[in-house]
Amino acid sequence: MRSDPPETGDATTVLTAYLAYQRETVLVKTDGLTREQLAQPHPPSSLTLAGLLHHLALVEESWAVERFAGQPMPEPWAAVDWDATPDWEFETAVDLEPEVLRDRYREAGRRTDAVVAAAGDLDVLSAQPLRNGNRFSLRWMLLHLVEETARHAGHADLLREAVDGATGE
Predict the structure, then answer these.
(1) What angle do CA 140, 142, 145 make, to 5 degrees?
(2) What is the pLDDT of residues 30-80, one digit of tens each?
(3) Residue 139 three-state SS
(4) Residues 6+ apart with CB under 8 A from 51
(5) DSSP conformational letter for 45
(6) Helix 138-164, helix 98-119: angle, nearest 10
(7) SS3 125
(8) What is the largest CA-CA distance in the chain?
(9) Pairwise CA distance, residues 21 & 3, whole Å
(10) Which burial class, exposed, middle or buried, applies to 134 when counting CB atoms under 10 A from its CB (0-12, 13-18, 19+)?
(11) Coil, helix or strand for 1?
(12) Does this model's pTM top 0.85?
């Protein structure tokens, strides 16, 4: 169930509420679809709703758990040979059941939320640096996750409409 983000509050509360809202938007776009429907691309793109869900779970755990918190990457991501299969999350998603994908995405969100709660301050810096050698703040990470999730929620709008004509918020 989506809840509108609050109009006021401290920055952490507002940022996490916006991220939660965008997560729920993506989940709403996948609600009620079969595995086959989630695996349906919209040519000329090969992107699918299943792939988006799996990708967003990877993005959250990569940025929050691994890069920010410096914790080991959880399964299934830790076992993937990313050099051999750089699009693994997109390729394997089409074979997963809808609730497996949705539960994996929800779990990734819970892990991100736990990292945010443990950090406690938006100015805390990441355990791992970016490619340029700079560490990033919790604030930066949250904004990045909001941006990434919102962008893909837009993709999900178009994909869902192509699958069954459903439109809406």
Answers:
(1) 110
(2) 999 999 999 999 889 999 999 999 999 999 999 999 999 999 999 999 999
(3) helix
(4) 89, 90, 91, 93, 94
(5) -
(6) 160
(7) strand
(8) 46
(9) 6
(10) exposed
(11) coil
(12) yes
